[in-house]
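2024-03-11 09:14:02 INFO worker-7 job=invfold-0412 stage=load source=structure_tokens
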């Protein structure tokens, strides 16, 4: 998580975005039994997003956070 935080700050993301991304990434990891994001793929992402009972915009934000995390790894 620290590497994600450092990368977000390096790219000058806002603090609000940083907190949001870290929240969604942590939720994604916990939902998938604490597996490392590098060991997960589309199936786990789809299951997590379908599990969320939120608006499409919120699901999109969660997806962006997960993609950001997986690209770093």
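2024-03-11 09:14:09 INFO worker-7 stage=emit residues=73
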């Amino acid at each position: 998580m620290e590497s994600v935080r450092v990368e977000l700050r390096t790219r000058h993301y806002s603090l609000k975005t940083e907190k949001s991304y870290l929240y969604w990434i942590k939720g994604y990891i916990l939902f998938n039994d604490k597996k490392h994001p590098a060991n997960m793929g589309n199936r786990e992402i789809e299951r997590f997003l379908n599990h969320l009972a939120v608006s499409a915009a919120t699901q999109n934000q969660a997806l962006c956070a997960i993609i950001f995390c997986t690209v770093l790894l």
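2024-03-11 09:14:09 INFO worker-7 stage=report msg="The mean pLDDT is 93."
2024-03-11 09:14:10 INFO worker-7 job finished
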